[in-house]
Amino acid sequence: MKGWQIIQRYESVPDLPVLAAIDVLVVGGGPAGVAAAQVAATQGKQTYLIEKYGFCGGAAVAGLSGTICGMYKATDDTQAAPEQVVYGFTEKFRQALVLRNGVTAPQQYGKTFTVTHDPLVWREVADDMLTEAGVNILYHTAVIAVIMDGDKFQGVVIESNAGQSIILAKIIIDASGDAAVVARAGLDTYFGDEGRIQNPTMFFRIAGVDMDKYLAYYGMDTICPPKVTENIQKANAELGWELPRHKIWIFPTTRPNELMVNATRLAGQDGRMLNVIDPVDFTEAEVFGRRQVRAYAKFLNEFVPGCEEAYVVDTGVEVGIRQTRSIKGIETLTNDDVVSCRKRSDGICRTPWPIELHSGDKPKLHWLIDDYYDIPFGTLIPQVGENIIVAGRCLSAEHEALASARVTAQCFELGHAAAVAAVLAINTQRKIRDLDVAVIRATMITNGSAL
User: Fold this and answer.
1) Is beta strand 112-116 parallel, antiparallel or unpaired with respect to 107-109?
2) Are residues 395 and 442 in the same domain?
3) 257 lies in the same domain as 146
4) Considering the domain boundaries, does residue 222 fall inside one?
5) pTM of this structure
């Protein structure tokens, strides 16, 4: 990326204060990172979690994506009840949200179902889970360099307003979402399909909705009906509005008279694809994302019954990021794996979620009807590099495959798998790539996962 260099590695421990020498370091506090840190700590390992914000949640909270997608099968049976196939840490976290009235019942999303969570409750559940497990959390802290011994990761250099320090760790779990630790070591990563990635979005919430009137018009499916799409196109054609995305998604939340809206489509003002790894693109996405929020809120006021008096409560702390770097793993989840619903003996996560590709004026959906596929363990392991494993959306996957595997339920379970592997590697003094996946699967099943 022009003007920037990600590689920052030391070949020995630099002359900086060592904050801690620990078992497991988790970088990133999104769903994958929270799961990884909590699981590693509850299995008796001294665990630190590094997070750049003052709270956990990643795209689910900072990006305000607001749903736990990927738990339920899709079906053509319009009368079918939700069929859950993903459990484990995902279900543990969902249940903790339920206890605080922080998540809805399943809501229809086209041919499948999802649930909508309260982002503030999400933060609190993560805080409590992590502290109760004994995880050492460092908020407002970032990894700026890695410490290597050849291809082996020894630790990281971290930075906060206090300055710089070092954490040495036996195993690092890169749950940054951006493969930031792997990339800082100069190991191979890639962006989507020859650089083409999914566009970001700016989620927002509106309050002051007459829910009875709204639901009578919009219906129970969170994917908008054709009449809403037609009105967006009409507003563009006849009124000169500029609403780039024509098929939008709206989710009732746990709060009275409130909706979460996924409507914006963010591209560069010159038409280019925005890659939010680059702060120039990230900034443009933020600025114009907020402008699009106001435009879509106006559309809801004028065209969607029940929203006449609605107002914007908030937007994401950052744009919703769907895709940036992926690692080159010892296994790659292929597009064919997804569409053929391939099952694997080395699978560590079921995925029933459709290929949900955001790259045009409306999302492209390929449904997996009454079925799911398995994500193989090797997608979390870089081809080169020891004492490192990734978790979350930076797994090794082809472009369309990632558009299915990147969602929240799967990120929870990928973090779960990464932590189980990290603990097993430490206990057996074996390389992560040499572990018996059957043992990892058995432990996950004991922890409640469905595999």
Assistant:
1) antiparallel
2) yes
3) no
4) yes
5) 0.96
For 242-248, the CB contacts below 8 A with 24+ separation are 242/295, 243/292, 243/295, 243/296, 243/299, 244/292, 244/361, 245/361, 245/362, 246/361, 246/362, 247/223, 247/361, 247/362, 247/363, 248/224, 248/296
Question: Could you list the residue range(s) of the whole structural domain that residue 405 is in?
Answer: 9-63+116-196+323-446
The residues that bridge with 347 in the sheet, in sequence order, are 376
* Contact of 171 with 432, CB cutoff 8 Å: yes
Number of compact structural domains in the chain: 2
Instruction: Please choose, from the candidates 217, 229, 164, 191, the residue with its C-alpha nearest in 3D space to the C-alpha of residue 363.
Output: 229
C-alpha span between 113 and 126 (Å, rounded): 23
For residue 381, the domain's CATH number is 3.50.50.60
How are beta strands 163-174 and 189-191 bridged, if at all? unpaired
Q: Which two tokens stand for residue 169?
A: 């760790």
CA distances from 439 to 92, 389, 445 (A): 21, 17, 10
Mean pLDDT by 10 residues, the chain (451 residues): 87 97 98 98 98 96 95 96 98 98 97 97 98 98 98 98 98 97 95 77 96 98 97 96 94 98 87 82 91 97 98 94 91 96 97 79 80 98 98 95 95 98 98 98 98 96
Q: Cβ(125)–Cβ(93) under 8 Å?
A: yes
